[in-house]
Design goal:
The structure is a homodimer.
Chain A: E1 18-30, E2 34-41, E3 44-51, H1 57-63, E4 71-80, E5 93-104, H2 121-126, H3 128-131, H4 135-157, E6 161-162, E7 180-182, E8 190-192, H5 198-206, E9 211-219, E10 231-240, H6 244-263, E11 272-274, H7 275-282, E12 296-297, H8 299-302, H9 308-311, E13 315-321, H10 329-340, E14 350-354, E15 360-362, H11 370-380, E16 387-393, H12 395-412, E17 423-427, E18 432-434, E19 441-443, E20 470-475, E21 478-485, H13 490-499, H14 504-517, E22 525-531, H15 532-539, H16 570-575, E23 578-580
Parallel strand pairs in A: 3-5, 6-9, 11-17
Antiparallel strand pairs in A: 1-2, 1-4, 2-3, 4-5, 7-8, 9-10, 10-22, 12-13, 13-16, 14-15, 14-16, 17-20, 18-19, 20-21, 21-22
Helix pairs in contact in A: 4-6, 4-15, 13-14
């Protein structure tokens, strides 16, 4: 037993007790005649005291040598502090040390172990084990644990069974790239790591398990964008004998439970929005509805004059920025420059100030009179003091641009409050999505998603218009979950795969086992998967998932702490019947 | 909503209600004028009835066409059965069907979906999704879920934090073979899948997390023995600021909790046994102590006569088989043949019958008199009616042989009762183990295991005698968990790695990050990992882990259902900068 108490639990009521504590030296203040040491562990901080009068000289000398992050064990008496610290839970007491043992020394850490550290991202990642000693990082990991446990207990109480599906599965070239694992025992063959347990959870439904969940690692070998990880965690769920409504209700219940249990926030019924409306009103399939600034389509009230930019545009769209008339000309120019950045890609922005006296002042007064501008204000819902911002162009592009602008302005205006939670179901996603590069349609969700009843017939004539029984759960402008009702009959699945460009042989080779399973009484089923990393980050009031992962990888997919990936021994390669095939450059 | 109730919940109290049910047709009995259908789902079975008098003719025709494993939905009235079935929870009622919808048809399944199926192992694995429909398989998976949840909640309540460690890590040639994952983004480099999160959990302790657990998949590319899986699940745990005693108490508590919560069995303090005693008394480091038959060393009472076999043996060891004198000569010959099988490898077996009249009759009466045989009985603890079995030879070999014989006889005598649970701690394992092939010592547990205090100095002179702070938890003759107190200072770790044959450069390349971490105030720490697959199987009263894994692999590491591993596309290989290097044979 290294300790009788932890460093967070001693109070005035313990005064007079002899205790043994262990932990890290946070800092020490050496006044010569008195030495104070702050001792830290996961649970808190306790002040140790050594003083000339009461501490033997040898121990005083030892105390003055205790460096930052030394691991020590002390035995001593809990005494009342002369000057109490009301900010510390243990601030009423300190420990008059009678015995001190250095359990391990420490070099000076490469960055300070403080809430606000001086360590940069790279250094913190290389010494992640020191970074984890910092309160915010440790609390994030403990927070994640709490969310996981709450999810598991909720789903388990609802009758879901946690089933572990395999990690060594089979590669499917369709979709994102798989990570693969060469098999030594099966020469020339490879396993793949799962991008999700999709087919296995469907097979569990065919197997009659009725309600399945799993918190499971998934793997995608993508070119990493910022804040993407090659391995990530899903809360993966599936139910049988259900309709879309049952799924939405079940997982709305889970999300409401998490908000209540973890954040203490009660939220009523989640609003639902059709995918088409989300695109029309927010330019985005994951709208942040914590604030307004809905899109207003202005074609009717802009294309009757001689302004060629608008007249030639497929879509003219505006938003009313609340209080935006306070922006100076310079500030507006900054916004215009922002939308013209290549990442956003607009050619320019038209605006109209809504003055307090009811008049308007626009950047296109040459073309539009007060009556026109009043219409713009009316359609966008702008009030006195607002600013109407207008973009125009090809529909998809201009929606994406306006969506970016809307988020940017909201951020600047402080409308994205991390303490406010606004969940939203987006439903009726398209079944297929056009790949503009190849001109082919591919599955928007995945090839197992069921089209809306009666729409299968449209697949040939209007593939882009077929809607799916697919839905996303959006929280504060982030997709935190998504799913669909699955196809459960062999014929529909075969039609879908054919439309996705699979030959019969390819379909058989890839998904033969699933098609076979559908021959033996597959029940109607559907499900949903949450991205746990993002869910936890958003519940934690942040948007960077890396801060909620114990050992994340960097944007090149490297773990800089353990220095992986790394070259293999030649012997290991030979055993796997592999040769490197690297072009000299 | 596909159903108002499930198939396990309707009772007499529901009579008169209209209900909608869905599920699979278990079987139907068609008498012409009346058709009964058993409808099955995860929750149970409900009897449906269609009869000439009350059912429209068209529906009667439909009912008679419902085949096994068809998925149907029915609406009807709950009525009281004429002949109740007390064996079924729903046996008081049946459903008079008013509407039936076939949700999916089914081919005749390749084996019967019954508790005792006619399907062989291979067929069941190929159609695992049908196998899972069988009650015993489904109940095993649900049982596993219950064990997992109980583990998580217990540890969470004890302050342990579930932390997800990475799956894409770095290969360490030491130990078992790693599965590796080529990195596309880091040309010529590979990740490895973890054999366990060992180093990461130690780093979490260095990071001050204090108590960690995770239920986590681990991977080992071994030549598979029966009942080994290339991917398996561990309950992985680590604690800081603890001594061995704290760990044993904590995980004894967990195991006791599981036995109570899952099996309803209360067990007191777990006995503890030194490794050396386990080897001496049971020839085995995971003794099954549900029954006795301890080894007795007989050198002193056998090597004083002219029997060369014993005189030349390093060890003569006997066990008293309770009631074994009832064996016929033929049965004893069978036992002798059993120990002579190559898998056991004994050259023969000597025995002595303990007759009811107090006399003895041995297979070596030519060499030993009644007084000698009385000594054998005394030392082995044999009583009248028992059989003393004696093996001799080189100590390690003869212990292994006797251990196998002891288990074999216990099995035959019905002493391995799956309803009895006998946990045992085996402690004080050797630090190192001699590899007889290479003549080198390697770490018995792993290179991070701490030697017993004060024994580090013996590493040079008597490496085989150094004991470690390492322990196994044994349940009914199976190792269900094992762990150790870890080294937490850089010097000791360096000495260990040197003794294990790592050069300084190799140690640096492999474990540099851990050695670095030990420079910055690593606390004393230790832990344990349970094998979840085996723990669940044993708690479930079985010893085959495959029955408790949803989608297991066969002995060649193949998933025969999805047919993995499989060849890769040439394009995928090229992207990974790999070539197959297969010798034509």
């Amino acid at each position: 037993m290294y300790r009788t108490h932890n460093n967070g639990e001693l109070r005035a009521s313990h005064v007079g007790q002899e205790v043994t504590l262990a932990g890290w030296v946070q800092k020490s203040r050496d006044k010569g005649f008195i030495v104070w040491v702050d001792l830290r562990d996961r649970y808190g901080m306790t002040q140790l005291v050594f003083d000339e009068e009461r501490t033997p000289a040898a121990m005083m000398a030892e105390a003055s040598k205790l460096g930052r992050e030394f691991v020590i064990q002390v035995t001593g008496e809990v005494i009342e502090r002369e000057s109490k610290n009301p900010k510390m839970p243990t601030g009423d007491i300190e420990i008059l040390v009678k015995k001190v043992t250095i359990l391990n020394e420490s070099l000076t850490p490469p960055f300070t172990i403080e809430d606000d550290t001086d360590g940069g991202e790279d250094l913190r990642m290389k010494y992640r084990y020191l970074d984890i000693r910092r309160n915010p990082v440790r609390e994030n990991l403990i927070f994640r644990h709490k969310v996981s446990m709450a999810v598991r207990n909720y789903l388990s109480n609802q009758g879901f069974v946690d089933v572990e599906t395999p990690y060594l599965i089979k590669s499917t070239p369709e979709g994102a790239r798989d990570f693969v694992v060469p098999s030594r025992m099966n020469e020339g063959q490879f396993y793949a790591l799962p991008q999700s347990p999709q087919t296995f959870k469907q097979l569990l439904m065919v197997g009659g398990l009725d309600k399945y969940f799993q918190i499971v690692k998934c793997f995608r070998d993508e070119d990493l964008r910022a804040d993407r990880q090659p391995e990530f965690t899903q809360i993966d769920c599936e139910m049988a004998f259900i309709e879309q409504e049952d799924i939405l209700n079940m997982f709305e219940g889970l999300t409401r439970h998490l908000l209540k249990e973890i954040k203490g926030i009660e939220i009523g019924d989640f609003p639902r929005m059709q995918y088409d409306d989300a695109m029309r009103l927010y330019g985005n399939d994951k709208p942040d509805i914590r604030f307004d600034m809905k899109f207003a389509e202005l074609n009717d009230v802009t294309q009757h004059k001689d302004f060629g930019v608008f007249n030639s545009a497929e879509l003219v769209v505006g938003i009313a920025v609340p209080g935006g008339n306070k922006y100076t000309r310079k500030e507006i120019d900054k916004i215009i420059n922002w939308v013209k950045r290549p990442q956003v890609g607009a050619l320019g922005m038209i605006y109209s100030r809504c003055n307090d006296d009811g008049t308007f002042k626009s950047s296109v007064d040459k073309f539009y009179d007060q009556e026109d501008l009043a219409k713009w204000a009316e359609v966008t819902g702008a009030e006195k003091g607002d600013l109407v911002c207008v973009l125009s162009g090809e529909t998809n592009k201009v929606r994406a641009q306006m969506s970016a602008l809307r988020m940017h302005l909201a951020e600047e205006l402080g409308l994205r409050d991390p303490k406010v939670f606004a969940p939203l179901w987006v439903v009726d996603f398209p079944l297929l999505e056009l790949d503009e590069e190849t001109g082919h349609y591919h599955a928007m969700h995945h090839p197992f998603t069921s089209p809306k009843p009666g729409q299968l017939e449209m697949l040939d004539a209007k593939p882009g218009e077929v809607k799916a029984n697919a839905y996303d759960l959006v929280l504060n402008g982030n997709e935190i979950g998504g799913g669909s009702i699955r196809i459960h009959d062999k014929e529909t699945q075969a039609i879908m795969l054919k439309h996705l460009g699979f030959s019969e042989e390819e379909a058989r080779a890839q998904f033969g086992f699933l098609m076979d399973a559908f021959e033996y009484g597959a029940p109607p089923h559907g499900g949903l998967a949450f991205g746990l990393d993002r869910l936890v980050a958003i519940l934690g009031g942040q948007e960077t998932i890396r801060d909620f992962i114990a050992f994340p990888k960097n944007n090149s997919g490297r773990d800089v702490m353990i220095d992986a990936p790394a070259p293999l021994d030649q012997e290991q390669l030979s055993e796997l019947n592999l040769k490197l095939d690297i072009q000299a450059t």
